[in-house]
Amino acid sequence: MAFYWYQSDPQLYQAEVAAMQRFFPSFQINQLQDGSGRLYWRGKVQPTGAGGLVWDLMLIYKNDHPHASEGEYGGSIQILPISPRLKDVADKMMPLVLETYGTYDNAVKHGFGLGLPHIYRNNFGRNEEYFICTADPRYFKAGQNRSTSAASALSWACKWIMLCEMWLNGEISDDVALEGNY
Amino acid sequence: MQNTMNSDAIAARRRALAEALRTGEPVVVTPTGQVEMKDEAIENGLSGIQVPDGKLAGEA
Question: How many helices, marked H, and strands, marked E, lie in chain B?
């Protein structure tokens, strides 16, 4: 019996691979060695171009791909920055966030409870890691005919990285980082 | 002098991109992951995936 989405829906798997090969050919697909059977893509991007950071990313499919529900930040594809490690960046920013908002509760209220905009935390292996929130579940396509692919999730992530770097450099305000039209 | 010009050009490009994102103009992502304004990418003959519409989610 097919247990994983890539076994039960080989056409979707082929479409995922084709989209990544077309749009992000340097990314490689592999399987996590944790017994979960989950597939992931790994590769590097440089969203702000020359002079910007190079980000080493993992795009990890949940086994219920394609799927999105309320409270799932980014649907069934999780984006984990390996380098820079998001938790380290967020921890460095937290004192500044607390200085800006006065209290932790107020920082949470303004969307900066984890130190960076649009991120969420989850367990990964033995550690708690911070992941990039991509699309609000309302925008994640999980229908029978169309689903959000790793390629589109990665494009959202590149946009987030650019916004994050600009926010870290003080080029955009907290409000724009959180509530811009994106 | 050349470096100053390059830095100025990079800064101007970043400001334009920030404004494009703020106003919801379409952007594309090239195979290296670089975010570009769609019109500029077309003009420069760059291929890429258009970032789908929709707000980013967030935990806190």
Answer: 2, 3
What residues of chain A lie within 8 A of the CB of B50, using their CB? 155
Q: Residue B40 domain-assigned?
A: yes
Check B59 against A73: CB less than 8 A apart.
yes
More confident: B54 or B25:
B25
- How much is the ipTM here? 0.82
- Of A114, A139, A163, Cβ closest to residue B54: A139
Task: State which residues form the domain around B6.
Answer: 2-50
Is B10 a domain residue?
yes
Residue B31 touches chain A, beta carbons under 8 Å: yes
For A92-118, the pLDDT digits (tens) are 999 999 999 999 999 998 888 898 988
Pairing mode, if any, of strands A28-31 and A127-132? unpaired
Of residues B48 and A67, more confidently modeled: B48
From the list B28, B33, B57, the residue facing A136 with the nearest CB is: B57
Which residues between 71 and 110 in chain A have a beta carbon less than 8 angstroms from any beta carbon of chain B?
73-74, 108
**pLDDT of A147 higher than 60:** no
What domain count does chain B have? 1
Reply yes or no on whether the pLDDT at A41 is more than 90: yes
B5 in contact with chain A, both atoms CB, cutoff 8 A: no
The string over B11-50, giving b where at least 16 C-beta atoms fall within 10 Å of a residue's C-beta and e elsewhere, is eebbeebbebbbeeeebbbbbbbbbbbbeebeeeeeebbe
Whether B56 is in a domain gets the answer: no
A144 versus A122: the higher-pLDDT residue is A122
Q: Kindly report the number of other CB atoms within 10 A of residue A18's CB atom.
A: 12
